[in-house]
Design goal:
The protein contains two helices and twelve strands; from the N terminus they run H-E-E-E-E-E-E-E-E-E-H-E-E-E. Strands 1, 2, 3, 4, 5, 6, 7, 8, 9, 10, 11 and 12 form a twelve-stranded mixed β-sheet that branches. The chain is globular. This is FecR family protein.
């Protein structure tokens, strides 16, 4: 009888631990500023040479297929390049020794929620705009250290020395 009672307490405790762990894991996926898979704003399509992603002060090498999130910064080394496609089909190509931060990207035309703001800190970046520029071009802009560019066309190149 005592062994049966100890076994019941053990099973009950194990269930509580499993429930607590699953609630903790679920909370880390949905709470706070951490991006979840549905929050990604674009993907890496091509990489040549050394290209790095800076996210939350962590620098990691970029690979084809990596997802990008708001606030991410891409940095290319000498002789390197990277190609990105955003969820609205906007394309970004970065040349060697370049740095681009994606400050804001929202594309939800059903709710009239659209915004694109990128900051080119140095180097070259070519943009070929996607769906957002056709629907709401006034909501797209690119900043440099000295200027802000309003997007009204479909293809443009930014060079920052």
């Amino acid at each position: 009888m005592i062994i049966n009672r100890i076994f019941q307490i053990f099973i009950f405790s194990a269930c509580l631990i499993l429930i607590s762990a699953s609630l903790t894991i679920a909370g880390t996926v949905t709470d706070g500023p951490t991006a979840t898979p549905v929050d990604f704003i674009g993907s890496v399509k091509t990489v040549s040479g050394e290209t790095f992603l800076i996210r939350k002060d962590m620098r990691t090498p970029v690979s084809v297929g990596d997802h990008l999130y708001q606030g991410d910064t891409l940095v290319t080394s000498s002789g390197s390049s990277v190609g990105i496609i955003f969820r609205d089909d906007t394309m970004l190509s970065m040349g060697p020794k370049s740095e681009v931060r994606i400050d804001e990207f929202v594309f939800n035309p059903a709710d009239d929620a659209m915004a694109f703001l990128a900051h080119v800190g140095k180097g070259t970046a070519q943009f070929i705009t996607g769906q957002m520029s056709k629907i709401a071009p006034e909501r797209m802009s690119v900043e440099t250290p000295l200027a802000t560019i309003g997007i009204r066309g479909t293809r443009f190149l930014v060079k920052v020395d």
